[in-house]
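Lab notebook: predicted structure, single chain.

Context: the supervisor wants predicted structures on file for every construct in the current expression panel, including those that have not yet been purified. This is the next one on the list. No modifications to the sequence; it matches the entry in the shared construct table.
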Amino acid sequence: MALKSLEDGDKKNAIRLFWESSEKSNKKIARLSTEYLTRIGNVNERNKAAILLVKKYDDDNARLTAAEIFFEQGEYTKVLSLTDNISSETAPNRLVFYRMQSLLKKNDSRLMNELFDWFTIRILSEDHVRFFEEYLKSISTDGELSSVLDNEIKNLPPDIQIMNYRLLIFKRNYKSAFNEIDNILSIYKEKNIFPHYQILSDLGKASLYGTTDFKASAQKFENLAYIYRSKQQNELAYCVYFYSARLYDRAGRYQEKVVQRFNSALDSTSDKERFDNALWYLLNMQLRMTTDDIIITLKKYFSRISNASWFDDFFDNFSVILLSHEKWQDFYDVWKLIDNTASEETACKYAYISGRILEEGFGNTDGTPKTKEAVTAFSRVLNGNASLYYKVCALARMNISDPTYVTDILTSGGIEKEKKIDKDAQTLLAGYAAYGFPQKIYSQWNEDKENLSMDSNIQVCRFLNNLGQYDNNYSVQSLRIAARTKSMWSGKIPYELLEFNFPRFYSNLVQNACKENNLDESLLYALIRSESFFDALAGSTA
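Prediction complete. Output recorded below exactly as produced.
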């Protein structure tokens, strides 16, 4: 009712209803109501809502909403009080930006230390760039940015030199950044502290893209690695080993050193994302080496990966190499090696092709008859969370045609994982559908999709699918939700979800075109789904 009043231009009634909702609705809708109140009404009303939002929910997102309001009104002291205990490393960048702006406006002595932390412990953003330029203007003699930048960089205070260095990388001015590497390292040496991880990463990027003497740069990073390892600074050692490997790779003719440095990086880090990143680079580099080298790396490290889907593109490329070189045994061996670690999509693909390899009489098993092992491989696909393509292929190889059995297999999805369901989010989506706000459903679904039940997903698909007869945008949204739900889901799925995954939009046009051109309707529906996902406005730059 509040949303409807707002839509009709009745702000007064909307405010009244939002306040009532903020007190009586479930937690999610009450919070949304409070957030709406921070955006409408007069200054006092918005301030009151902002204070309530922070008091009730006490998290960084609530603080960000309140900080925007207080900063807009020039209430810098309130912004500082609100953000006194936030983390410059993990808080939303925009929230830290408002704090920095308020420190600057109040000429607060804490600014320089906090600004330096913000610039050196996280990936840079446009907020960093915007604030740094304002800060430089504030310390210039005439309030102009150019008067600071025209200065010789080495004449600026050390902390400003380091922050400015980060901006050089952010703006991809790699040549200038490369020329400053020794200066930046010397600043940290004079400070008697280790360089921050993000700074070392910037030095690596400058070396990769700002020079052609990759070997010399690789050796410099090697020397740093020995220092950091001896000082037990393992994550810093990881960083310089990683860039040393990439630099040796760019230099060429140093494949053994590349592998050694990547291995050293992998052995140095306890950070899961960094480990996956280095292993991905190593494996992709080894696509230019022998398949034996890759298998050795997989045996040594692949059981430690965290994000299996990160490696899907590598395994796609690796499969092409293995098959085009008729490495039948290696393909089968790789499947057995990665089956429980790779993503389901990759594991099932390798299982199916391994089954076909064995069917054709190639490769050797552990002693199991090849025909029996081929059945095991195909069964792995049928029982797993494979793509429909490989399930259909496996059904064909197993000569399974009973409609009930086929349907059961196509709606299976491996082992079901426990899912935390947000009932409040489901209530919100159902409310948008019931009370005439379909335009809000897709964005809200994207925000909450990890915590919705299958029934809720099906209801959303069905509702948007029905609206599609009036507006093609909703047809596309229904298909996208259906496709993403299927790819995310583990365990049994309803047959209705499959139907939503393969819709028959534009049926009159398709029927007429197929009749005129003597085509199977399924072929044209499949082509439309692949090329445009039934989006009538889809275009291509090709």
